[in-house]
Amino acid sequence: MAGIALKSIERVQPLALAEQSQDIEADQQYRWLLDHSPVAMCVHADGRYVYVNQTLVRKMGAQSAGQLLGRKITDFIHPDSRAAVRAQIAARQHDGDTGPPLEMVILTLDGVPREVEALAIQTQWEGRPAHKVVFRDVSAQKATEASLRFQAALVAHASDAFISTTTSGFVTSWNPAAAAIYQRSAVDALGLPIGGVVGADLDLAAIVVGGGVVHATHRAADGSELAVRVSVSRMDDGFVVSCANQTALRRAEQQCQRVVASLQEGVVVIKADGTVESANPATLRIFGGSMTGVGAVEFAKVAEVPVYDANGRLLTRDQRPVMETLKRSPRRGCIYGLDRFGDGERIWISINWSLLDPSDPDRSSVLMSIVDITDQHNAHRQLAYQATHDVLTGLPNRAHLVALINDAIGSAEYRWGAVLFIDLDKFKVINDELGHHAGDTVLEVAAQRLRAALGPDDVVGRVGGDEFVALLAAPIQGVKVNALVRRLHTALRKPIRIPAVCDYTPTRRVQIGASIGVVAVQSDEQRCAAEILRAADAAMYQAKTTGGTTCHHSEVASAPARRRQPARRAGQPART
Known about the structure:
Blueprint lengths: L1 H34 L4 E6 L2 E5 L1 H6 L19 H13 L10 E6 L5 E13 L2 E10 L1 H19 L3 E6 L4 E4 L1 H7 L3 H4 L4 H5 L5 H6 L3 E7 L5 E11 L2 E8 H17 L3 E5 L5 E4 L1 H7 L11 H4 L4 E2 L14 H6 L2 E9 L6 E10 L10 E7 L1 H15 L9 H12 L6 E10 L1 H8 L1 H18 L5 E4 L4 E7 L4 H16 L2 E3 L9 E3 L2 E8 L8 H17 L5 E4 L22
Parallel strand pairs: 22-23
Antiparallel strand pairs: 1-2, 1-5, 3-4, 4-5, 6-7, 6-10, 8-9, 9-10, 11-12, 11-16, 13-14, 14-15, 15-16, 17-19, 17-22, 18-19, 20-21
Helix pairs in contact: 15-16, 16-17
């Protein structure tokens, strides 16, 4: 018996070894299939990866399986998905337990989220419970679904009519915009020829051959005409037709044009090549009525008129706001002066400009808004003029003269050659005997005569009641100064007619003279304006002490000033 049993065992052992070898070979083949499967797979036990195939390694952005094995699976699960994953793992208690597919978000090695669908089963790995998981990447599917939903929403909410037809032109879809535009519900349109529901003959195939776009006149259900832009695309089973209601667009454009046309502000659109694309009526009014047909006028030609900066200085061509400047630096409130077309009147404008398409500055048009600020500008200049000029005579006042002298001394330009301090003689007698109106007349006439006797580059101003200062342009020689002083004396000695105040007062004639102090100004002058004026005042005082109607030249760099009297208005007592 024992021999028989032994022989039986000897026969069984080779059979068992053969079966074991076959099992090992089958396991190896199965492992090879897993490793090379195009489907991403993993096995995790105790919350850590114990196996990952090459597809999962690649999709996780890893270089090898070693970068994933042994790591926690939660390291690669988005926080929003971890609770659902833990719940499914806890629900699988026995070998072979599975759960429904779970949509979740995993994180690659570099943290990029990817949407996947995971299907897991409880199994064994090296004698301990484990979970085998198969992943299906659904990112592309989700994106496609989202795109389809978005496109469907666009079609449903679009302002254009979107109509699908069969190859023979029968309507298969009709969006809400089509119902609104053509005043026909989808129920009334589906299954009918498209020409019948849009109120016009449409050869869809011919439109596609002709480029896909035509402009046509359609009719709504109530018979009203519609200006429509029709776009047709061929599909596998028919056509997709887009109908844009140009009637509403034209209405909006006309409304916008009416608004722009009614603006008091000029609005100009300049194309990238410098051509004026459009200009509203306010622009024509601001620039001059003769500027007709501005839509065809090149901006460069329009800019041929003289253009000035805010201070009235003529701009050179490279300083003007040409297209390159406009595109480089959008600006607000830039002030320019220009001479109007036709009448040549000087106007002042405030310009704002900006690109209509900042993302493409090279091809973008430029929008300019123009405001006529001539009145405000002139009012501002008038205030500035009044602050620097004498109200009675219109001559520069003391502050202005001081600024002119100091500016010349502080610059490299040698501008003034001499300063004359002029004090009228016999003014007090005239003012006291004939009254303030006579004194004002004398001052006005004296100012006119002084201005007429001086050269075109010279400046004369009033610094006090009967005191004037003349700035003689450089270079000037002493001989010419003496001749000029004699000319001033001659001009001032001429009789002055004092008009009658009322009917019973006679017209009077008076005669005045002047005491003049002269100070030479050097090209390397070190004195300030106040010192030069003090020296000229002192020289004038020396002339007056000699009997009046004379002049005195100051050769002292800094002459002592006499005690000055307060500045007087016309009509106040003056020295004789």
